[in-house]
Structures are given as C-alpha cells and as structure tokens.
Design brief:
2 copies of one chain form a homodimer. In chain A, 45% of the residues lie in helices and 13% in strands. By secondary structure, chain A is of the alpha+beta class. Chain A has a single domain (13-99), classed as Orthogonal Bundle (Arc Repressor Mutant, subunit A). Chain A starts with 14 loop residues before the first helix and ends with a helix.
Chain lengths: 104, 104
C-alpha cells in the first residue's frame, strides 16, 4: 500500500518554513525545476540532489512540509510536483524566484 | 571611535543567506519596516525585536551579513537602514515580501 505523506493544509503554510526551505540551494534548484513545468510529476530520483538517500529524503520532507511540493509514492520510488495552490497562498513568490534564477 | 561593521560586497550577497535571514518572522518584520521607509535610518532599539540584547544583536548581524541592511554605530546605539543596492542584486524580492505582508 502506498505511504500517505503529510501535507499541511494551505492556510497552515507559513513564510518562515517557505523561506527556510528555499535557503538551501539544492532544494531551491529542485523547486525551480518543478515550477518550470508546474503540471509535471517528476521522479525524485530525476531531481539532481546530492547526498545520501536519507539526506535527499530529508530535503523532500522540508519542501513538502513547507507547502511547496506534493509528494507521493509510486512503485518503488517517489514522485514530486509543485503544489498547485502555493501561489494562491503566497502570490508572486515563486515567480520572483524564477525571475531571479533566470537572471543568474 | 565608532565600530566599523562588516558588510558583504554586493556580488557576495547570496540567496541562501537572504532566504535564511527572512525565515525568521521577527527579522522579516524588521526588514518590512525598513523597506517601507527605505531612506530612513532607524535606531535598532526602535525595531520591535524580542529577546535579550545579545539575541537582538545576533539578528542584526544575520540581516547585515545577508546584505539586507546597513548598520552603523551612533553614540551609544546602532542605526539600521535598508541596504539601497539590495534590490539591484535580487530585483523584486523585497517588493514581493512587502506585497505578501500587506496581504496578511
């Protein structure tokens, strides 16, 4: 049976956790990649995150609990996509991140 | 003699440090206040930051080293203002923060 992972309700998503999640360049790169194809589900393994498996799992958990991504298990792996309601909670934040990332 | 505090050169200001600095609601509130009157120098004591003096000093250091504020000593206290070149480094980031804060 697939593991049901915790996702916070939208109104419990807070800027403290969002900015903290984005303060890591690897997590930020993953969010940027997901935000560029917001409808697409991407295997976690396809997102280029360094470190041991436990480290990568931790990064996904931080992003999920910050309300930035949806994560579900699929077969032996995990799939991630951008959380579609995030922009409603914090409008423009991800657009700004994308613009900053394009500019660098 | 006034203490000269370290301020990173603009091109050494990184998103990791900026987002980490903004991940604390008290630091974020101070930045929002400074960003609303970007030309004004504000005494640190006037910015409503809880905690012991050493804790407050730590918060100012985090904001200064993240490139968000300029800090200088004046008499027996410290003055802070928004770093005027920050928006050149990360255009729109603070505008977005202000918009999000207005909306809450």
């Amino acid at each position: 049976m697939p593991v049901e992972l915790f996702h916070p309700p939208l109104d419990a998503v807070e800027l403290d956790a969002v900015y903290a999640a984005l303060a890591d360049r690897h997590r930020r790169a993953a969010v940027v990649r997901l935000a560029r194809t917001p409808q697409a589900e991407v295997p976690c393994a396809a997102l280029d995150l360094p470190g041991a498996k436990s480290t990568r799992s931790y990064h996904w958990k931080v992003l999920r609990e910050a309300g930035l991504v949806l994560q579900r298990s699929s077969g032996t792996g995990m799939l991630l996509r951008l959380r579609p309601d995030f922009d409603r909670r914090f409008p423009g934040l991800l657009d700004n991140l994308l613009a900053l990332t394009d500019g660098q």
